[in-house]
Design brief:
The complex is a heterodimer of chains A (about 325) and B (about 280). With about 325 residues, chain A is mainly alpha-helical. Chain A is about 75% helix and about 0% strand. Chain A has a domain of about 190 residues: MetI-like (MetI-like fold). Chain A is built from twelve helices and no strands. Chain B has a domain of about 150 residues: MetI-like (MetI-like fold, Orthogonal Bundle). The chains are: A mainly alpha (about 325), B mainly alpha (about 280).
């Protein structure tokens, strides 16, 4: 087990190192924002001075080396634009993003799995067909389109929900104030529709495959009640692969907050990364992507360990 | 062979919803292939646009209304469909060719080639696809050719992994082993003997991934990073219309969005049905 964990940690570190190198290189090639940052009447000397001050006049190797030395001290560099540590800026915006992703995932799992089970028990019933059609629509609708239609209906036409911002924030989230909840409804719904539909469909497919296995037939032949078969034997075996997918999907959800935050002017990391890429603010882009890949790697790790507990056949 | 194909077709049409999906998709494809036959104007020929027609609500002349330049939304959708489908298909075909080949080679030869290709795939899969495409497009600039390449870079991994998985089990089978014993070259064994057996899972994935590719393109275009408004896809039309949504000109974004949704649903219906037919595990 220890060997497995060490191996995984090494692999994860390698992934993050590679990502940092690639992103650093791409951003290096893309250029720097010095000319954007200086006033229009700045002289050529000002530009040269500023580049030197930020260390941007050095070669790629030297700059990347400096970056790695700083990383080993837990410092990902200062944002070119804001002048503050990039990691602090990313972390400052993170709660707003996580709040969207976590609530959306929670709702998707809570609604998606039961609906998936219902539609798998009697796959040809009218109710199942209705559920399946809507879930197909759900995975077919681009996230930005869901958001836009919600804004059109609830903000433009009905005028009942605010279309931008986070509202009143209490502690670290807007979920504790009425104003905050009103701001949360549409962005969360936008993110959740796709995930909910996906989880529903995966639950259904998994359940249907499991329900056709011999041990289920054996249980039925032995006279085990149908409810016990479905909710105990079949569900247990469906949930295992589902955990992996929910883990991976959470990462996707965090990525899709970029779209949601753009539509609803939500002050999270998604908005930050779009702005930073366009401003060529390399430290923020690198810090953001490293944080995201860290979350990804951590989730995958937790999922794999969970696996060994849920499924005794898996031995690491 | 002919009988076999007909059997699959008959089985396909047994599901009414999937049949409807295929028909709708074919109609949209015809629009996309020859948009000029169905549209009232060429929406990108500035000589045909009149500013006095700007922002007209849907009416008898302009069925789906017009945008700020007096562009007929119906015609724009026909042309937008073409760009969306082109990007979806071109990027999928490219990803299949690249991913398939790399997957076959990776699985057949194993060793360090396999390690390198699969490590790249692992790193890419440990990262959300939209982020990779977003960074590429943001730094590279918008354009149809560029977005096809960006989506290909994101999508080849899925085909490579699938092809590799199938090859790993196929290459041990008798037919592949006997081809080797007969002295066939590795190239012939990979592409003549093993490849035909990997096509079914690849077709299933490709159908679904076309829809994903079109959504990805539309999303990037919505963020202003995909296809420029001078050669708009459905996504860039929606993006363009979204900017005037709050002024009440809903038709400029809602209609392209509905068509995009219908397109994706129809492709997903086809994909679902193809998977059911080709997956023997779900056969009763």
């Amino acid at each position: 087990m220890t060997k497995y964990i060490l191996n995984r940690l090494f692999h994860s570190a390698l992934v993050m190192f590679t990502i940092s190198f690639i992103v650093f290189f791409i951003m290096f090639k893309a250029g720097d924002p010095v000319e954007l940052m200086l006033p229009p009447d700045a002289t050529q000397q000002d530009v040269v001075d500023m580049r030197a001050a930020l260390g941007l006049d050095k070669s790629f190797i030297v700059q990347y080396q400096k970056f790695l030395v700083n990383v080993s001290k837990g410092n990902l560099g200062n944002s070119f634009i804001y002048g503050q540590p990039a990691l602090d800026i990313v972390f400052e915006r993170m709660p707003a993003t996580m709040e969207l992703a976590v609530i959306a995932m929670f709702i998707s799992v809570l609604v998606g799995i039961p609906l998936g089970i219902i539609s798998s028990i009697k796959p040809n019933s009218i109710l199942s067909r209705i559920i399946m059609f809507f879930s197909l629509a759900g995975i077919s609708v681009p996230v930005f389109w869901t958001g836009m239609i919600l804004v059109l209906i609830f903000s433009v036409i009905l005028g009942v929900l605010p279309s931008s911002g986070r509202g009143e924030v209490y502690l670290f989230t807007s979920a504790f104030t009425w104003d905050g909840i009103k701001h949360l409804i549409m962005p969360v719904a936008t993110l959740a529709v796709f995930q909910l539909a996906l989880i529903l469909r995966l639950t259904r497919t998994g359940m249907m495959e499991v329900l056709m296995q011999d041990y289920i037939k054996l249980a039925a032949a032995k006279g085990v009640p149908r409810k016990v078969i479905v909710y105990y034997h079949a569900l247990k075996n469906t949930l295992i692969p589902l955990i992996t997918i929910i883990g991976i999907q959470f990462g996707q959800l965090v990525a899709f907050t970029i779209v949601t935050e753009t539509i609803f002017a939500w002050p999270g990391t998604g908005k930050l990364i779009i702005d930073s890429i366009q401003n060529l603010d390399r430290p923020i882009v690198v810090a953001y992507l490293l944080v995201i890949s860290f979350i990804f790697v951590a989730i995958n790790f937790v999922v794999d360990v969970l696996y060994t507990f849920v499924d005794p056949r898996v031995r690491v | 062979m002919k009988l076999f194909k007909n059997k699959i077709l008959i089985e396909y049409f047994e599901d009414k919803l999937a049949a409807a999906g295929l028909i709708v998709f074919l109609i949209l494809a015809i629009f996309a292939i020859a948009p000029s036959l169905f549209s009232y104007q060429n929406p990108y020929d500035l000589m045909q646009l009149y500013l006095e027609n700007s922002f007209q609500a849907p009416n008898a002349n302009f069925w789906l209304g017009t945008d700020e330049q007096g562009r007929d939304i119906f015609s724009a959708i026909m042309y937008g469909l073409r760009v969306s489908l082109y990007v979806g298909f071109a990027s999928t075909i490219l990803s299949v060719i690249i991913g398939f080949t790399l997957g076959l080679i990776s699985g057949y030869y194993g060793g360090w080639i396999d390690t390198i290709i699969m490590r790249i795939a692992d790193i890419q899969l440990s990262f959300p696809a939209i982020l990779i495409a977003l960074i590429i497009m943001a730094l590279w600039g918008a354009g149809v050719g560029k977005i096809i390449i960006a989506i290909t870079i994101v999508n080849w991994v899925y085909y490579a992994r699938t092809a590799r998985g199938v090859v790993l089990s196929e290459k041990e089978k008798d037919y592949a082993q006997s081809a080797k014993a007969l002295g066939m070259s590795n190239f012939s064994i990979i592409f003549k003997e093993i490849m035909p057996n990997t096509t079914a899972p690849i077709i299933v994935i490709a159908t679904v991934r076309i829809a994903v590719a079109i959504i990805l393109e539309a999303t990037l275009s919505f963020l202003g990073l995909g296809v420029p408004i001078t050669e708009p896809s459905l996504g860039s039309l929606i993006s363009n219309g979204y900017q005037v949504l709050f002024s009440g000109y809903w038709w400029t974004s809602v209609f392209p969005g509905i068509v995009l949704m219908i397109l994706i649903i129809s492709i997903n219906l086809i994909g679902d049905r193809t998977r059911d037919i080709m997956n023997p595990r779900l056969k009763r």
